[in-house]
Amino acid sequence: MKKALKIIAVSLFVMILAGCQNVSGDSATKTMKLAHNQTLDHPVHLSLVEFGRLVEEKSNDTIQVDIFPNGQLGSEREVIELTQTGAVDVAKVSASALEGFESDYSIFSLPYVFEEYEDFEHVMNTESITDKIYKNTEDIGFIGLTYYNAGMRHLYTKDREVNDLSDMSGLKVRVQPSQTSVNMIEALGGIPTAMAYGEVYTSLQSGIIDAAENNETALVGNNHGEVAKYYMYTGHQIVPDMLIMNAERFNQFSEEEQALIQEAADESTAYHEDVWAKAIKEQTETAKNEMGVQFIEVDKGPFIDAVQPLHKAYANDEKTKDIYQLIMGGKAND
Ligand code: GCU
Question: In the chain, how many domains are there?
């Protein structure tokens, strides 16, 4: 009940905001509300701004994209729900957060399903694979438009170096709200706690958790490097950020408009690659030199071995075996 009220309240808030913007805007302009949980200087925000610019340019300013960053419309889970109802038109969320809505998305949280970025890139640029995933959620209210590179996820801790599996014992690690990620930390010997991204900094600070796992932008862009001083290159997941859109809203656009929205999404994904690479390079340097974070190479072998039972279970489960086969068969080196 409380949750339903929150969705209604946020929906009303979004409608009021949109209303205010329309007062000065051209009434012929169609506005799309886009929500995400990152800061204004995060690389994915820059690429979403580029998406908006491209939509506006390609539509001769007849479609406008209004971005609500910083999780101001809620956590990723809440924003996915708002996208289902249509209170939000477009959202950028982690594929891990989508697992609770469509089990196909759980493949991205299965540890070491991609060991190399090239394999991930190949899969994400194979239309027969992405089409299946992106369109599979139409009946629950949204479709996928594109993905953004969100790097490799690595483990980081407040005050413990993790060199091998024995160091994982008793470690309280925050994971995304994804059952597969919970299973991953258990398989590695740690104690998982699923929570929204916005709560991680204070939870690390107060000791509710000892560790988290993410790409390097979490250290600088989200300031986690102020409290977490060890960053281990475990490379356990490559989870894309997904751009999803309310299905009904998309279908209300003309075919030409749909095509230009799709084109803008694809082009912003390509644009993002450079923005991402630059941000990772710069932020790693900042974390090292200004925050005193130590970057540590680890032997991934034992970590990969420890999660093999998860792969087996995943490959045999009725719900996940098709997507597992599809992705394993779609990798560049297979
Ligand atoms: C990444 C991802 C976010 C997500 C976050 C998380 O930073 O880009 O969308 O919220 O991980 O760990 O929750």
Answer: 2
Question: Could you tell me if 270 and 292 lie in one domain?
Answer: no
> Does ligand 1 have an atom closer than 6 angstroms to the CB of 150?
yes
Q: Do both 214 and 92 map to the same domain? A: no
Domain assignment of residue 258, given as a range: 2-149+240-280
Q: What is the CATH number of the domain that holds 271?
A: 3.40.190.170
Nearest 10 degrees: Cα torsion 309, 99, 92, 156: -40
Q: Nearest 5 degrees, angle CA 78-CA 83-CA 85?
A: 95
Question: Which secondary structure element, helix H or strand E, spans residue 325, and what is its range?
Answer: helix 321-329
Q: Are 241 and 92 in contact (CB under 8 A)?
A: yes
Distance 93 CA to ligand 1 centre (A): 7
Q: CA dist 43 to 194, 220, 276, Å?
A: 24, 12, 6
The tokens describing 217, both together, are 């932008």
Query: Can you tell me the ipTM of this complex?
Result: 0.98
Condensed to tens digits (0 to 9), the pLDDT of residues 130-150 reads 999 999 999 999 999 999 999
How many angstroms separate the alpha carbon of residue 197 from the centre of ligand 1?
6
**Could you identify the residue written with the tokens 């939870």?**
203
CA of 56 to the centre of ligand 1 (A): 27
Domain match, 295 and 266 both: no
Nearest to 100 by CA among 71, 78, 74, 129: 78
Same domain as 177, residue 139: no
Query: 18-72 pLDDT, tens per residue?
Result: 544 444 444 579 999 999 999 999 999 999 999 999 999 999 999 999 999 999 9
Asked if the structure places residue 334 within a domain, the reply is no
- 97 and 15: one domain? yes
Which atom number of ligand 1 is nearest to the Cα of residue 94? Answer: 9
Quickly list DSSP for 247-270.
Answer: HHHHHHS-HHHHHHHHHHHHHHHH
**10 Å Cβ neighbour count for 184?**
26
Q: How many residues does the chain have?
A: 334
Q: Which of 80, 83, 173, 176 to mutate to test the pocket of ligand 1 (most atoms within 8 A of CB)?
A: 176
